Every structure is written in structure tokens, then in C-alpha cells.
């Protein structure tokens, strides 16, 4: 017989069978019931449950917050305003106000928008509300800033589309700018968004030709765009054939369109790691139309072939916002070293060494520094701890965390994370470290790391690089003879030590195991019954699989890390036909997620190795060399 283990569950059952529900036992039960009422759109019950919460309950305002979300859906401005008057400060009113200003902007109620906009902190504004803020300014005669940010080939939210339309209507954007945006949307296969842009701005995009590119009239702008769209679509399955088509058609296209086309083909070639072909096509591209992503892949193509002089030249041509990234500071410095110019390389390594990221650590090593000694630890005082414990947002966050764990409700944990992040805004180093220590003691490990990582001058690396569950992790790492620092580096990146972590694709637990992988690994080691979220089982299966991919990938940690994220087949495919520096292999991984993952895991491993007092292995040496295919 199944036991009903909470009053809220019992109340739900009694209501289902028509019996009178008893009074709920405590405020947490009431809150969970209120969340259920919110999801069921039972606003009267939600309001009643909210009214029954005690005044001193730290989460008392949440039912009213959920009611405000429902009011936003109904465009009930009066109820939204009442909530904002009753709860003037905190995460909840900021999120409601951010959504409300978008509603007001959509309705062009600029008077109300202006009143609420000035109350919304910059940190609380998302992309769309910021666009509405610029649109309000446009109506007041102000010129919007940085509209070129929309030339990156991705859809924009409705408020930003309205900003683009308004800016064009006032002569602040040219038709050529609109063509560039439409071209980028088509290249990304965002066909409906490109058509909407054309409809909003009377851009003569040929919709019929987009449907049947063979009928495109190359004497018209719309026909040329349709023909270019067909070449880009063909390139996804037949890159060489698309290049041949573009070569034949080039004489009939204006230079801007043909230059754009070569840039798109070059990007696809670079992502397929056809570096030599990519470099040829990038040379034919129009550099004025290259996105940040294309500039970076141009540089990666030269890097993949270790064409150091060409890499240096590409980085020098990059837009400043791209070349200023630590990655490209580092690689330009490496290219200068290879060209025998160490004096020119040193300042670039110094610029890239700020912080504690992968490239910062690599740059520090090039400057002669290492992690052989543990970072100094700064401890907050008891007064610092008491101050942070009494902060209302932190109290709400920890109360939400408790509800999430007691009731196994991940959505409350998400709210707890949001409250915690809000509470960290504008904090000094001691406050951040105090908050990190509080989170650590509460088992809120991801937020402990979040707070500790935000310090500027005073650091505690034992909080940045936490080691919970070390007895379990170390046991299986030793059994399988794998580096426990590497295992910790991977867990930190995978789950931030959240045992109930579940990814959007279904990966679970500390080591984020996919169901099929967990089942396969369990069969291999003889586990007939297992729970993938059990801490010990998850680590046992995860470390076994990590050992498996390591053994099958030449014992190379970098490749095994890539395989853990993207699969062993892809990790092998990314090898070159010659030995490759591990840092080059990592930087030229085609998947952005996997590239970032590998770099962060390996940097984490270096920090954990130093914390554990292991033999001093630099990150550069840890990255090693990738054998040829």
C-alpha cells in the first residue's frame, strides 16, 4: 500500500474523491498546494491559500507573485500594480515588472511604460524589455544604440523586431542593413522570421522564389537572395556542389551577396574541420558581413593547420570586441611566440591572464606562474555570516531549497537559485564568501560556487572548487585508477554537485548520465537493479564509463572529456591526420557546448589537482598531445 507522506497529498486525494479536505498542516504544505493551484489556473483557490499563510513565513509573498503572473496573462494592470505596491523590492517584483513593461510596450502605453521602466534595474532587464526601452526612446527622438547587434543571424523577440521596424521607418537603418539581416536569417534557415522582417519593412523579398528558387529572377534583389538561400541550403548536404553553384552564379550576383555566400560556405567548411578549404573561401568572403562566429572560425581554421602567421593576421583584422576575448589574446600571443616574437607575446599573455578561466590559467603558465601552491583562503567573520543569514532574499532562497528537497519539487529549487543570484548583486567579497559558506553548509553547492566565483580580490578556492561526496568519488576513482581531480572537474561542470540535477535531454545525477548509458554501464559491471540518481550508484556508473572512454581513446583525458559530452565517435572524428596539440584540438571542436565543456573540465581538473596536493602538472601539459587518427 502506498503511503501518503504529506498532508498536501492527503488533501488532494480527499478532494479528488469528494471528501472535505482537512486544514493543511503547515505553511510549506500550503505553499505546495498554492503552486499546484497556480498550475491548474485555480486563481480563487490560489488566493485563498495565500491569505492563509502566516505573516512571518518567509515565502508568504509567493502566492501573490503567482497571481500577478496570471494577471499579466489577462492584461489586468490593476492587480499587477497592487502586487508591486505590496511587494516593492526583491526578485519577485523585478520579474513581474520586467514582463509588465513588455506588455505595456506591446500596447504602446508609453506613459505607463515610462513610469515602470525607471523603476526596473538594469540587471533585471532582458533583451526584449531593453528593446522596448529603446523603442520608447525612439518615440522621444532618441537614436537607439548598437542596432548592429542584430546582425548575428538569429531571431529576435517581438519587441526587438518592432525596434528594427521603427528605426527603419525613421531613416536610421538602410535597406542594405535590412538585406543583411534578412540574409543572415535565411542562412540560419529562419525563413518565417525573414519573411516577417520583409513584411514589416516592405523589403522586396521574393517569397515565391524562396519556395521555388529555380524560378528566381537574378535581375532582382529578391531573386538573388532566393538563389543565395538555395545555395546555402544545398551546402548543408553537398558543400562542394554548393561551392560549384556559387562559382557559376557569381557573375550574376552583386559582390555583397557573393561575398556573403562565400563566408557562409567557409563557415560550414570550418565546422567540418576542412580547414584548408575554409581558408580559401574566407579569403573570398566579404569581411564587412562576417559575424563574430565566422571571424572565430576563420581563426580556428588557421589554428587547426598551425598557420601561425596567418592566424596572427586574422586576429588583427577581427572586430575589437572579438579580438579582445581572452581566447584570441592567448592565441595571438602563441602565434607571436611561434614567429619568434616573445617580447610582443608577453603583454598579450598578461592581458589574457586576468581571472581564473581556462585561458587565464594557460596564459599565467606562459608567464611562468603555476598552481603549485594553493590559493590563499580568506575567511569571513561571524558578523559577516550573521548579516548574510538575515538577508530576506537568502532566507527565501533557503526556505525554497528546503521545500524542494522535502517535497522533491525541482521547480522550487529553480526559484531558490533565482533568489540566491538576486541576493548576490552588488555584494563585496566578504559578503560573497559568507554567502558561499552558508550555501555550502546547507548543501546548496551550486550557489556556493556561484557566490565564491564572483569575488574580485579575496578568494577562497575551497569554496570555488568544492569537494562534497569525496569518500564515494575517491573510492571509485582509485578502484578504476583514474585521476580524482579530473573526475571532480567533470562533476563540477556537469551538475555543480546537484544530486537531483536533470538535463533537458534526460541526463541525471552528479555525473549526468543518460538513461541508455547508465543502463549499458550497469549491465557491463553486473548491476541488475539500480537508481541512477543514487549518489554512490551514479558515481560508480559515471566513473566506470569515464574509464571506458579513456581506455578507448588512447588514454587521453582531453579526448575522453570530449567523448563524455559528445560521444566517442565524434571525439575520434575531431582528431587530425597528424599529432595535434591538445589546446588546438579543444579550441577547434565544432560544437560550442563541447568546446566550452572540455576547456572548463580540464581547467577545473588543474585547480582540483592543486587543491588535492597532487604532482604539479601544468594545464598545458595536462592538455597534452592528441594522436593522429
From TrEMBL:
InterPro entries: Lysozyme-like_dom_sf, Lytic_TGlycoase_superhlx_L_sf, Lytic_TGlycosylase_superhlx_L, Lytic_TGlycosylase_superhlx_U, Transglycosylase_SLT_dom_1. Keywords: Signal. Residues 414-452 form the Lytic transglycosylase superhelical linker domain. GO terms for molecular function: hydrolase activity, hydrolyzing O-glycosyl compounds. Residues 473-577 form the Transglycosylase SLT domain. Residues 1-25 form the signal peptide. The keyword Signal applies. GO terms for cellular component: periplasmic space. Belongs to the transglycosylase Slt family. This is Peptidoglycan N-acetylmuramoylhydrolase.
